[in-house]
Amino acid sequence: MSTEKKVTRKKIATARDMAKFMAKYYLELDHASRTGERKIAWCTSVGPAEILRGMGFLVYFPETHSAMLGATRTATDYIPHANALGYSPEICSYLTSDLGAFTQGFTPLTRVYGIESIPKPDVLVFNTNQCRDVQDWFAWYARQFDAPLVGVHTHRGVGEVTKDHALSISRQMEALIQPLEQVLGHKFDIDRFREAVALSRECSELWKKVLDTAAAVPSPLTFFDGTTLMGPAVVGRGTPEAVDLYQELLAELEERVENGVGAVDGERFRIYWEGMPIWGRLRAHSELFAGLGACVLASTYCNSWIFSALDPEDPFASMARAYTELFIVRSDDVKEQYIKAMVDFFKVDGIVFHNSRTCPNNSNGNYGMPQRLRAETGIPCLTIDGDLNDLRCLSDEQTNTNIEAFVEQLEERGG
Ligand code: SF4
Questions:
Q1: Secondary structure tally for the chain: helices H, strands E
Q2: Where are the alpha helices (DSSP H) in 213-266?
Q3: How far is CA 346 from CA 207, 339, 408, in A?
Q4: Ligand 1: distance of its center to the CA of 150 in Å?
Q5: Which of the listed residues 68, 87, 94 should we mutate to test ligand 1's pocket, taking the one with most ligand atoms within 8 A of CB?
Q6: 326 lines ligand 1 (CB under 6 A)
Q7: What are the phi and psi torsion angles at 56 (to 5°)?
Q8: Cβ neighbour number for residue 278 with a 10 Å cutoff
Q9: In the chain, what percentage of residues exceed pLDDT 70?
């Protein structure tokens, strides 16, 4: 039988500098929003941020704001206000909690940074590579602020990413330039764009190295750490500050590996997390797994901000490829191959699939994938039902019981 024990979470020192970076990022956006000194572009989390950064926009990512609503456990209160506007409780709870909070004049930025409201967009730019919800989400705000909405429509369920796929996306990205120039009032500069792509690539490589340190036994890092440490990789890619931060983080984690310091004391089992985090339960889940001697050490989610194809020499085409090669865009066959490679690389004992009620795009346990992976690799899989932000979709008791039983199953296999 597994025995749950009280755990102390090990702090990562670089997290303090990351928090400072996030504060500066939001305060700069707020200043620009109030004074109009800089133009602000809203961008989806895996949207064409490098183009926007290279053109001189400040870039705001609403999904990160929604994750804050989730992590502060305020999201669930605001979802009904979006439902009242006709946005169903069944669609993305990032979208519904964000819209709902806005209509009620609430943002967690107030308590954390003293900021009254989210920054006003001068333009909103989406990529449907992750889902259609982002387009609807941005369309609502475009109407609200009377701001232009432009975007890229990506193929979905892609097996091999072909030249034709990449070409159609890169043409759409090039077509963004003219309307963005109109918003900015100045011309696009290819050299600044290349610079942003180069910095983004550097950030991506460092972020990958950070995540790869979890292959060490014991792992110096958990998935739960990763969900907050990834902030600058999402909102700061394309900036030199983000590069500096991930150099610092990598050095800290490499030191942990060298000294044999694990994120979970007495690591007995190594778990892969497939799907969205449950933002309002990050701490509880981190402590639950750690108390069972299980380290959730790698995830598809944190890996989603690795853009290895980016190349400043061929910026549009490489961006098109990088943002189409993402896991979420791909066919189930490609996804399964990917997870199998992760299981081997990270020496995983078990996989948890989070079936997120309002995000079918990030829920891969509904069409037999866990069963197929189990049959092919012998690795046990657990599916838990929950949601990224809507805590009404989650039964804590059932989740905890299922996780405890899963770890017992790993024990019985002789872990
Ligand atoms: S991928 Fe899922 S969580 Fe992200 S915006 Fe789309 S529906 Fe929401």
A1: 18, 8
A2: 223-229, 231-235, 240-258
A3: 16, 10, 21
A4: 18
A5: 94
A6: no
A7: 100, 10
A8: 24
A9: 98
User: Which residues are registered as beta bridge partners of 123?
Assistant: 41
Please name every residue paired with 294 in a beta bridge, in sequence order, or none if there are none: 269
Cα of 392 from ligand 1 centre, angstroms: 17
Return the structure tokens found at 104.
Answer: 């009620």
Pocket of ligand 1 contains residue 131 by CB under 6 Å? yes
Q: Is 388 in the pocket of ligand 1 (CB under 6 A)?
A: yes
Q: Which of 241, 234, 261, 245 is nearest to 210 (CA)?
A: 245
The number of CA neighbours under 13 Å toward the Cβ of 172 is 24
Give the whole-angstrom CA distance, residue 356 versus residue 390. Answer: 9
Tokens of 359: 């995000």
Kindly report the protein residue whose alpha carbon is nearest to atom 8 of ligand 1: 92
pLDDT at 1 over 90: no
State whether the beta carbon of 299 lies less than 6 angstroms from ligand 1: no
Please state whether beta strands 149-152 and 294-299 pair in parallel, antiparallel, or not at all (unpaired).
Answer: unpaired
Give pLDDT, residue 298: 98
Q: For the segment 68-105, what is each residue's pLDDT rounded down to a tens digit?
A: 999 999 999 999 999 999 999 999 999 999 999 999 99
* Secondary element (H or E) of residue 194: helix 190-212
**212, two tokens:** 């790869």
- Report the greatest alpha carbon distance in the chain: 66
Average pLDDT value over all residues in the chain: 96
What's the pLDDT tens digit per position in 308-338? 999 999 999 999 999 999 999 999 999 999 9
In short, whether 75's Cβ falls inside 6 Å of ligand 1 is no
Q: Are 76 and 392 in contact (CB under 8 A)?
A: yes
Q: Amino acid identity, residue 72?
A: T
Residue 218: asked if its preceding bond is cis (omega within 30°), the reply is yes
Structural contact between residues 297 and 378, judged by C-beta atoms closer than 8 angstroms: no
Nearest CA to ligand 1 atom 6: 131
Tens of pLDDT, residue by residue over 252-291, are 999 999 999 999 999 999 999 999 999 999 999 999 999 9
What separation in Å is there between the alpha carbon of 172 and the centre of ligand 1?
21
